[in-house]
Amino acid sequence: MSLIPLLNDIVGAEHVLTGDDATAYLSDWRGRYTGKALAVVRPENAEEIAAIVRLCQQYETPIVTQGGNTGLCGGATPSNKGDAIVILTTRLNKILSIDTDNDTITVQAGCILQAVQEAATNAGRLFPLSLAAEGSCTIGGNLATNAGGTQVLRYGNARDLALGLQVVTAEGEIWNGLRGLRKDNTGYDLRDLFIGSEGTLGIITAATLKLYPQPIAKSTALLAFEDIQKAVKVLSRARQGFGSALTGFELMSAYCLEIVRRIFPQIKVPFAPETAPWYALIEISDSESAEHARNRFEEVIGAAFEDGDIVDAVIAESGQQSHEIWHLRESIPLAEAEIGKGIKNDISIPVSKTAAFIEKTNALLQAQFPGIRHIIFGHLGDGNLHYNIGAPDGQEEGFLDYQKDVYKIVFDSVASFEGSISAEHGIGQLKKDILPDYKDEVELALMRKIKRVLDPNALLNPGKVINSVELY
Amino acid sequence: MSLIPLLNDIVGAEHVLTGDDATAYLSDWRGRYTGKALAVVRPENAEEIAAIVRLCQQYETPIVTQGGNTGLCGGATPSNKGDAIVILTTRLNKILSIDTDNDTITVQAGCILQAVQEAATNAGRLFPLSLAAEGSCTIGGNLATNAGGTQVLRYGNARDLALGLQVVTAEGEIWNGLRGLRKDNTGYDLRDLFIGSEGTLGIITAATLKLYPQPIAKSTALLAFEDIQKAVKVLSRARQGFGSALTGFELMSAYCLEIVRRIFPQIKVPFAPETAPWYALIEISDSESAEHARNRFEEVIGAAFEDGDIVDAVIAESGQQSHEIWHLRESIPLAEAEIGKGIKNDISIPVSKTAAFIEKTNALLQAQFPGIRHIIFGHLGDGNLHYNIGAPDGQEEGFLDYQKDVYKIVFDSVASFEGSISAEHGIGQLKKDILPDYKDEVELALMRKIKRVLDPNALLNPGKVINSVELY
Fold first, then answer.
1. CA proximity to A109, closest of A183, A186, A162, A32
2. Helix axis angle, A254-263 relative to A319-338, nearest 10°?
3. Which CATH class for the B218-332 domain?
4. Could you point out which of A13, A101, A377, B69 has its C-alpha 20 to 30 Å from the C-alpha of B12?
């Protein structure tokens, strides 16, 4: 018997998509990767997913799991072979329970991130994971890629927010690890092994997540610096002065503000051009009062200003002004897209080495590609830079063909500063072939061992993260 | 050639201990477990450990790694077979580097926890892991057991404080994963797999750890509650009111204070007997000022008092008073030891279920063992209870023989409340045979697979965590 009727038996024929119905799920949203699949299957729960996996083992059919299809590395797109099925988790969209005394929420993997945030808000709590795609990405995808976002400085990555998981294994068994415990030392940490494995070791079907109190007030400012070292110094002062009330420290170069000014003249940039080469959005979340947040902000920022660590500062006087500063920050990638396709780098560097890294890498790139433009911004508090490259003026044509050469220069430099070639987006297809060049041989060997033992037939998301050819 | 001369070649004969020189390392500090070993070996660095491991592979010699020998579950004590060697990490005691701009410290595994804390303090930072054994336990042991302690509520377990590891694998290779990055999504999370694996998957030889700013001021109080639900309610209010400034919430029963009063009359207990059945030490760490901490404390605690959530409260007026309250809390296990050996339980329960768990389990135990005494205290903020049992008055003789029966009642109850049978002490030898009764079969199978593939000859700390008999 062929696979499709058996899939129909498990999930119902209306949830087994083929032909045109399947097309939307066979490309990533940026259109960088397109693949083929026998079918796109929409199960309703972990039991159906387990049954599908067992069937796929029988038929030796590869499985690609997909949530909201918002990934940036092609991790949820099948290959061109057409021998795989895609499992869509979007029907696993139930908020299963919420426990405000334990400060936990248990959700199915296909819940949209925003729905999880809203469920927390409705219960008077905060679920702090927050990123640009939150209106369409799923929590399962967030966990599979260990998503970061804008609040990592205070609350950590997706991994740090998960207490327990339910996972369907490669054998089609269900591991029920939905624990709502902050302390549990009973064996190996399987949870964190599945988190960030991009669907190559198992399929996350539900999770128990941490909740936090909602802050009473926030304060936001835009600071101007004469160099990055000063920004690093103020970050350090802010960590000392605000403690964990510090929830954002977003670096951006003057050029980032310049392109926002040029592309979106309606957006208010609170500094005159040429004020400074570097800026940072800083935000604190206060558990006391708006007045306290404001006073505290002025005290710590004021002291940095007096000591000459800050060239200039604009402190938001209202929620509206705070929103404007965030909007400015969030408009950078949009402005960047408008001025032409670029080569993006999602990297991390120890915070202390950020300045030296940028100086050295900019010079190396300029030597090879004179006139290229640097669009540098990111989460300085986490050492995470979006170190992006634009073509020299008038040379956009064919610039993307140099991606491999740019990667080589940037990643070699990242390695020399003990950084990471993927800070928050993962490996997927995009960096799979490059990874062995930057990963310790012992670490790669350990990864391959774990992949082999947890997915011996290499059916879970093949061709992602690690090279299957080397595996078996 | 026999093993000992070859070990001598690697580390020098003066660092290969046998006979009486080895005795101290063959028992755990509480004297619950005693074993034998071919030798106790004291290597100086990861390279020597790697060479020892390769040698042990050749000679099929099991390896038990030991740090400060302060574990509570026999995880660092060899078995009685006498076929193993013990690797002592205590000579790997260097602080390798400290980076205040990146807020990280890199240390060898044999560093005493207190030495790590002091190195951080000397650099103007806080390394927040803190527990009773900090003067003699090693950071390697803390990581191997994912130690908890008194500041987990704010800063997390040992796992949450580690960014990177250096590990010697079962093959005697060195994985250099000493990364100081807060974001790194380049493959499987090996770090967290080794952390908490109690030396059964690899040997941790160094770590890069997170540092935090030192708080400017602390405030401490002892609160009295009419029942546990009220304590849970005030914990929730404190999380809301203090945000992450809340660094301690330690529950203790009236009976705990009573035994401290009886055994240590010199210790000041700030409440009259019978004030309330439950108490909690609450602490906040402020990044602003002592005055702010004090005011904020009075505001939040005051509101809880007015709403009737607190029966009575004593707020420390000085560092000395704060110290006295902590001393009271820390004297509970000492008083407990004085009144006779008991049966200890290091468990966790969802915070919301704490009251129901205690009520039900107390009743089950009293039905089986009328008159037993309940010494209940712990880190309520983490859901972690030290749910200890003392013999009925005058029946101490032979009471410890009932440990297995007490465990059965307590752990069955823990399981029914979706808790963990080991919150922060680990499994070791103590709970290895019980673990399969309380662990999902799928999870156990995954653990065995990982053990098999990372330690195929079962030489790393055999007889700990998972039952070797079932493994191969």
1. A162
2. 90
3. alpha beta
4. B69
Q: Which of B176, B185, B229 is the mutation pick for testing A, counting most A CBs within 10 A?
A: B185
Pair of tokens at residue A391: 């073509």
Is the Cα torsion angle B206, B133, B115, B8 positive or negative in sign? negative
Assigned CATH topology for domain B3-88 = 3.30.43
Confidence of residue A12 (pLDDT cuts 50, 70, 90): very high
Strands across the sheet containing A174-177 = A95-99, A104-108, A203-210, A162-168, A174-177
CA B310 to CA A112: how far, in whole Å?
40
Q: Tell me: the pLDDT tens digits for B249-275?
A: 999 999 999 999 999 999 999 999 989
- A350 and B443 within 8 Å at the Cβ level: the answer is no
Look at the domain A95-213 and name its fold: 3.30.465
A365 confidence band (pLDDT: 50, 70, 90) = very high
**Which tokens go with B233?**
């309610």
Q: d(Cα B198, Cα B64) in Å, to the nearest integer?
A: 10
Residue A169 three-state SS:
coil
Query: Is B186 in Cβ contact with A421 (below 8 Å)?
Result: yes
CA atoms within 13 A on the CB side of B75: 30
In angstroms, the separation between the Cα of residue B50 and the nearest Cα of chain A is 13
The residue of A188, A193, A294, A345 whose CB has the most chain B CBs within 10 angstroms, and thus the best one to mutate to test that interface, is A188
pLDDT of residue B351: 97
Q: Kindly list the domain boundaries of chain B, sorted by start residue.
A: 3-88, 95-213, 218-332, 346-393+402-416
**Complex ipTM above 0.85?**
yes
